[in-house]
Structures are given as C-alpha cells and as structure tokens.
Design brief:
Distance between the termini: 19 Å
CATH architecture of the largest domain: Beta Barrel
Mean pLDDT: 95
CATH class of the largest domain: Mainly Beta
Largest sheet: 10 strands, mixed
Helix content: 10-25%
Strand content: 35-45%
C-alpha cells in the first residue's frame, strides 16, 4: 500500500489544495481547516446549508492564502495571520465545541459578499486548543476546525467498489479526505486500529460517518442521492453510513510534528 495523495482544506467547507508533502501536527495537517466561516450567532457554516461554497477555490502562494470565486474576485491573507490581520475575538461553535477565535476581517468581507448574507471568518491560532470527542480521545489529542478528528483517510479501492455498486461516477473529492491510500483491499480499513504512513503512526478511533456534503458535485455544488443512497444499503452502522477512517497522529513525548510525502509506504500497524 502507498500514499497516493495528500489534501488540505485551509477554510472549512471550501476548496481543496493537493500537496506532494505535508507536515503533520497534533491537530492535523498543517494549514488544514485553520479558518472557518460562521454566522453572526457564531455557529459554523458549511456546504450543508451553503452548497455554493464548492465554488470557492483556495491556493497557497508562499506564506499567503489565496481565496477566490468566479465573479467575486479574490482576497489574500496570511496562512498564519498575525495581529495586524486579525480582528476582534468572538465565540464560535463547531458541533459541540465552543471556542474563542479571532476574526479575519478581509475574509469576512469576502464571504459576506459571496454568500450575500452577514457572516464572519475566524482563524484557529496556535493558542486555541479544541479537544476531540472524549469517547475516543487520549490525553493531548486535539483537532482543528475539522468536524471531529485531525485527519481523514480514504481508500481508492473502497471508492472504486462503491462507484461500481452505485453505477455512477464518484470522484474522491466528494469525500474530502486528507490522505488517500492506494493498494488496500476494499473496506479493509474498517479493521485498522493503527496505521503507519511513511513511518508516521496514526491511531484510527472510528470510521467516518458521512453526511449530505458527499452528495454535492464538488465542481458545481449540485446535489444528488449518491453516494449516500448506495452506502445506506451496506455501510450502515447505528443509523449512520460510513466511508473513510478518522485518524489521530501518535507522537512520542516532546515530539511536535512529522512529515508525510506522496508515494510513502502505508502499512497496518495494529497493536
């Protein structure tokens, strides 16, 4: 098995960036889901209610994050904003987590124009710490603005099997994984409790429960019934349908980060 792709999503629910190399931190891949759009109430905004966010493209140029959408121009901000680019701190909520996060006014203005409603965009700075689900957490585990866990792994073999069952094309981008594995047996990832990717060890607390975002065409934002319709016929667990595997990096004491590269070997490391 090998690592066939690495992807980060700097702004939660916006466009992906494919990388050849990425730094793994305790809260996930560096620059992954470090920004988040929120309503005026502070509640997070995603493609679930705003499918138009599929149209927002992101890119990294040096130390800058570029955000753009057709007919709405582009905006640039620092990948790691400092005091000069940050506004007031506000309380924001992502699922069961409530955090105090600073606003990025330039991004707030862009998304307010794009969505045609008042929203803000906040940044997760290094001083913000968000714990993962305590049911599956070890001491020190944390996560970015991602839904629940630091990384999401998907298997190309599982995607191809699902595509064959559904009878329609299902690109991997629908599932928004961080790391994609080639060469595994379809659905074998269900049985992994630990996996080593290029020598970086990850714990796999649970499969990933999927939502309506997977039914959106990642290019157009148009919704369909697949893949949830087919997943529900053979991947239902406790009322949820599963695709992919949540990962939590395992670091030695004092270790802060490691590096992943496309092409790295992948092996099951259970026990």
């Amino acid at each position: 098995m090998r690592l066939s792709s690495i992807v980060v999503y700097p702004i939660k629910s916006c466009g992906p960036i494919a990388l050849d190399r990425a730094v793994v931190t305790r809260r996930g891949l560096l620059h992954d889901r470090r920004f988040m759009i929120v309503e005026t109430s502070g509640r997070f905004v995603t493609q679930r209610e705003e499918p138009r966010l599929t149209q927002v493209k992101t890119a990294i140029e040096g130390d800058a994050l570029i955000v753009e959408a057709a007919d709405h121009g582009r905006v640039e901000t620092a990948l790691v904003p400092d005091g000069g680019e940050l506004g007031a701190t506000r309380a924001v909520t992502v699922w069961r987590s409530t955090l105090e996060a600073p606003e990025v006014p330039a991004l707030s203005a862009f998304f307010t124009r794009f969505l045609a409603r008042d929203v803000a965009c906040v940044a997760m700075t290094d001083t913000i710490h968000r714990a993962i689900n305590p049911k599956h957490a070890n001491e020190g585990d944390e996560v970015s603005f991602a839904d629940g866990y630091p990384l999401l792994l998907a298997s190309e073999s599982s995607r191809r099997d699902l595509e064959a069952r559904a009878g329609v094309p299902l690109v991997m981008a629908r599932f928004r994984p961080n790391v994609v594995v080639e060469g595994a047996t379809a659905w074998d990832e269900d049985h992994w409790s630990h996996v080593s990717i290029g020598g970086v060890l990850f714990r796999a607390p649970k499969p990933c429960a999927r939502c309506v975002i997977t039914t959106l065409d990642p290019e157009t934002g148009q919704a369909d019934k697949e893949p949830l319709k087919t997943l529900a016929t053979f991947r239902r667990v406790d009322g949820e349908v599963m695709f992919g595997l949540n990962l939590v990096p395992v670091f030695e004491e004092g270790e802060a980060e490691r590096v992943l590269e496309v092409g790295a070997s992948v092996r099951r490391a259970d026990g």
